[in-house]
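for the recovery benchmark. C-alpha cells below, seq after
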C-alpha cells in the first residue's frame, strides 16, 4: 500500500470488511471511486479509505443506498463534480436514476462483448479443425479414394457440434479455405457457424463441485469455512483470478454444461460439468473434462487444475 493509492484488499484491511463487501461498495457507488493507472490489481486514489469507512458506517446505521449516496455527494468528490467542462452546469448534471441506468447499460455491453470474444474464439477453433480435416480429405481422395470414410466421419462430427456454443446474439463466423490438388485444380470451401445465450441456473451453480480421485472416487474440496467448494466459486476464480482479463460463456453439450474461458492472448479453456449423485446420495456438480485449445487433458492435469483454482479461494 502506498500513501496515495489503495487496492480492494488494502481497503478491506482498513475497514475490517471483506474484499467482496468493498467491491459491492464500488458497485453501488461507482461515481465516488477513482481508479489510478492501468493493470491489475486495480488501485484507487487517495481518499478511497475514508470513503469506504464512511460507507461502512452509514450502512451500519441501516441507511438505504439512496440516502447514503445523498450524504456522500455532500462529503466526497464524485464523477459528476468533474463534468464542469461541458457547455453548461445544468447539462453536466446527471441525476442518480440516470447514472444507475447508464452504469447498468455499460455493464450489459461489457458482458455482451466478453461473450462475443469467447464465442468467436470458439468458432475459430472449430473452423481450424474443419480446415485441417478437409485438406487431409482432399489429399486422401487423390491418393486413395477408399480411405476417406474415417475423415468424412470426423468432419460430420465437427459439423454436428458446431452449433453447441451459445451466446447472447446471433454471431456468424465465416472462413473460406482454398485447396490446390495435385492436378492443379483449386477448390474453395466456405463455412458459417452461428448460435444463441444460456447459463446454468443458480441451483446448479451452488452445488459442491467434485472430480474423480486417483482411485475413481468422488473428491470434493473445502471452500469457505464450514462450506464445500462450489461450482459458482470455481467459475468466479477461473474467470477472474486464474485467467486474467478472461471472457467466459456457457453452452450445452448433451448432459454437460460447458464453460468456455479465454483471455485476449491466452488459450481457450473448456470445463465440462454434469449434475450427478454420489454413492452417498449427495447431488453434486461433476467436473468431468478439461479441454485446452480443443485438446482434452488427462486426469492428473484436471486434478492439478482443480486444486490450483481451489487454492485461490481466499481471494473471494
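predicted aa per position
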Amino acid at each position: 500500500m502506498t500513501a496515495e493509492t489503495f487496492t480492494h484488499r488494502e481497503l478491506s484491511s482498513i475497514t475490517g470488511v471483506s474484499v467482496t463487501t468493498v467491491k459491492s461498495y464500488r458497485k453501488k457507488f461507482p461515481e465516488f471511486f477513482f481508479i489510478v493507472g492501468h493493470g491489475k490489481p486495480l488501485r484507487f486514489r487517495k481518499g478511497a479509505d475514508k470513503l469506504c469507512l464512511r460507507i461502512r458506517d452509514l450502512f451500519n446505521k441501516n441507511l438505504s443506498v439512496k440516502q447514503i449516496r445523498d450524504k456522500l455527494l455532500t462529503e466526497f468528490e464524485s464523477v459528476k463534480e468533474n463534468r464542469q467542462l461541458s457547455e453548461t452546469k445544468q447539462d453536466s448534471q446527471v441525476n442518480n436514476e440516470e447514472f444507475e441506468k447508464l452504469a447498468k447499460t455499460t455493464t450489459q455491453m461489457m458482458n455482451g462483448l466478453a461473450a462475443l470474444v469467447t464465442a468467436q474464439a470458439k468458432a475459430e477453433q472449430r473452423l481450424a479443425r474443419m480446415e485441417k480435416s478437409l485438406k487431409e480429405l482432399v489429399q486422401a481422395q487423390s491418393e486413395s479414394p477408399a480411405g476417406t470414410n474415417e475423415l468424412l466421419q470426423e468432419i460430420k462430427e465437427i459439423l454436428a457440434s458446431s452449433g453447441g456454443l451459445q451466446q447472447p446474439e446471433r454471431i456468424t463466423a465465416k472462413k473460406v479455405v482454398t485447396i490446390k490438388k495435385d492436378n492443379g485444380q483449386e477448390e474453395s470451401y466456405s463455412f458459417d457457424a452461428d448460435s444463441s445465450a444460456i447459463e446454468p441456473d443458480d441451483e446448479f451453480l451452488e452445488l459442491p463441485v467434485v472430480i474423480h480421485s486417483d482411485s475413481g472416487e468422488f473428491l470434493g474440496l473445502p471452500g469457505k469455512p464450514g462450506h464445500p467448494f462450489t461450482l459458482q466459486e470455481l467459475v468466479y476464480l477461473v474467470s477472474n483470478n486464474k485467467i486474467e482479463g478472461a471472457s467466459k460463456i456457457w453452452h450445452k453439450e448433451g448432459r454437460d454444461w460447458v464453460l468456455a474461458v479465454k483471455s485476449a492472448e491466452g488459450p481457450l479453456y473448456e470445463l465440462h460439468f454434469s449434475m450427478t449423485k454420489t454413492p452417498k446420495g449427495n447431488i453434486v456438480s461433476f467436473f468431468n473434462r478439461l479441454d485446452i485449445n480443443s485438446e482434452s487433458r488427462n486426469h492428473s492435469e484436471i486434478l492439478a487444475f482443480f486444486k490450483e483454482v481451489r487454492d485461490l479461494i481466499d481471494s473471494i
